[in-house]
Write a structure and sequence with these properties.
The chain has one domain (22-226): Aldolase class I (TIM Barrel, Alpha-Beta Barrel), CATH 3.20.20.70. Helix content is 22%, strand content 23%. The protein has helices at 72-82, 100-109, 169-181, 201-211, 221-226, and strands at 22-32, 42-48, 68-71, 86-90, 113-118, 132-137, 161-166, 189-194, 216-217. It has a nine-stranded mixed beta sheet. The model is unreliable at 1-7 (pLDDT under 50).
C-alpha cells in the first residue's frame, strides 16, 4: 500500500518478551486547533506517519514516510508535557496504523478531549466513542473521491463532523449533491472549507449563502496565522 507507515517493528525483543505497542510518529507539537469544532483551542497534535491516499491539495506530504517509532507510554508522556486539555491525532492517515485505536482510548482515559482527523477512506466504527471524529469527504478535485468509504455514514453520530474541502464550483456542486444523495443533513456536523490558495473564501461563502445550504463555512485558522509552516 502506498504511503504506509513502513514495516512494523519486531513483536518481541531479544529475550522473547513482547514489545510494548508502538506507533510511527512524524511529529508531536503544541499549537492552536485550526479547524473543526475545536478551532482556536490550544491543542497537542500527534501526527502519525503514513497515508494510503495522495490528495492533490495535501499539505502534509512530509508525513508520508518520515517518523520515529514511539510507545504509547512515550506518546502519552509527551502529550502530558504540553499541558493541553485538547489532543488531536492526525496524519497522514492515522487509522492506517492499527495501534492508533488504543492510543485514542489511552488519551481519553487520561482525561483529554480527543479528536481524530481521518481521510474517510478507512473504517471508523471501532474508534473509541469518546473521540470526536472529523472525517474528510474527498471531493473530485482531491483526485481521491473514489476512496470515500460510504459505509462509515451508517455509524455517524451528532458529534461527528464531515469536512468537505472545496476547490472549485464543480467541487461545490458535487458536494451539494453528495449531501442530498446520502441524506447527510441533520445526521452530523457538516463543514465546507475552501481549498487553501485555490478557491477564494468569499466565493465559497457566497455560494453557501445563495443556496441557503445548512453547512458550516470554515477557514483554516493556522493557515491565516502562520501560512504553510509545518508543525503549526
Amino acid at each position: 500500500m502506498i504511503g504506509s507507515a513502513a514495516a512494523a517493528p519486531p513483536r518481541a525483543d531479544a529475550s522473547g518478551q513482547p514489545r510494548p505497542a508502538r506507533l510511527r510518529v512524524n511529529e508531536i507539537f503544541y499549537s492552536l486547533q485550526g479547524e473543526a469544532d475545536a478551532v482556536g483551542y490550544p491543542t497537542a497534535f500527534v501526527r502519525l506517519t503514513g497515508c494510503p491516499l495522495r490528495c492533490r491539495y495535501c499539505d502534509t506530504a512530509y508525513a508520508f514516510h518520515a517518523g520515529d517509532w514511539l510507545t504509547l507510554d512515550a506518546i502519552a508522556e509527551r502529550v502530558r508535557g504540553t499541558g493541553a486539555a485538547h489532543v488531536c491525532v492526525t496524519g497522514g492517515e492515522p487509522l492506517a496504523q492499527p495501534n492508533c485505536l488504543p492510543l485514542l482510548a489511552r488519551l481519553c482515559d487520561e482525561g483529554h478531549a480527543v479528536s481524530l482527523e481521518t481521510s474517510g477512506a478507512l473504517d471508523v466504527s471501532a474508534v473509541d466513542r469518546r473521540v470526536d471524529r472529523v472525517i474528510d469527504v474527498k471531493t473530485p478535485d482531491s483526485g481521491e473521491s473514489e476512496r470515500n468509504r460510504i459505509e462509515n455514514f451508517a455509524c455517524l453520530r451528532d458529534r461527528d463532523q464531515l469536512k468537505f474541502v472545496i476547490g472549485s464550483r464543480a467541487d461545490y456542486e458535487w458536494s451539494r449533491r453528495f449531501l442530498a444523495e446520502h441524506a447527510l443533513v441533520g445526521r452530523c456536523r457538516l463543514l465546507f472549507s475552501p481549498s487553501h490558495g485555490t478557491l477564494a473564501p468569499a466565493e465559497l461563502a457566497g455560494w453557501i449563502l445563495a443556496d441557503r445550504l445548512p453547512v458550516r463555512f470554515q477557514l483554516q485558522l493556522h493557515k491565516i496565522l502562520w501560512g504553510d509552516v509545518p508543525g503549526r
